[in-house]
Amino acid sequence: MTVKTSFAALLVLVLSLSAARTYAGGYARLLRAEGDKNVDDSIAANNYAAARSAEIDNQLKAEQTYSQMRDLNKEWMTTNEGRPLTAEETEQIAQARAPKRTDESQLDPASGKINWPIILRDAPYQADLDQIDSLFADRATGGTLNGGQYAEVQKLHDDLVATLTANAKNYKDYDLIAAKNLIDSLAYEARFATT
Fold it and tell me: What is the chain's pLDDT, residue by residue, as a tens digit (195 residues)?
């Protein structure tokens, strides 16, 4: 064997060993990547199972909390409920909450003349006051208002309250309360006959 041949044989041997080593290294990396994938898949499956378990636990806890809160509310309501109101008590409460009827210092039953509080004698209210004065004058002569007149009094009541509320910053609280009480009393009074 000559030196050239042995060198060529050696070179082929080295190259073939190098190719085999490269192939073997690549195959080893492939196997390692597959193993890493399997480990990662296993970790992901464990994480998913843990998350699902936590979700179920949270749902159970939410349902238990809701049930406990409902039971506590029911217990509180039962403890603080008291007895139902009688018909007489309900009527007394309704009467106490109803506006008061006007007295003779506010509305003259014979003439229908209304004694308006000073803040309502201001210009923004005058048109509504004139209409209410006219309706209550008709009520004084006729004894009662008809349905259309009653509805008109209620509309004028709402208009006056809205205007009064819009101008509230211009008046003292006690003047506003007195004016509002009279307006409410007149709207309530409109449903009754004069006698």
Answer: 565 566 556 555 555 656 556 665 666 677 787 888 888 888 888 888 888 988 998 898 889 989 999 988 888 887 777 777 788 988 888 888 888 888 888 998 889 899 999 999 989 999 999 999 999 999 999 889 999 999 999 999 999 999 999 999 999 999 999 999 999 999 999 998 886
What is the pTM (predicted TM-score) of this model? 0.54
Alpha-carbon distance of 37 to 30, in angstroms, equals 10
Q: Is 179 helix (H, G, I), strand (E, B) or coil?
A: helix
Burial letters for 34-69: b for 16+ Cβ neighbours within 10 Å, e otherwise?
Answer: eeeeeeeeeeeeeeeeeeeeeeeeeeeeeeeeeeee
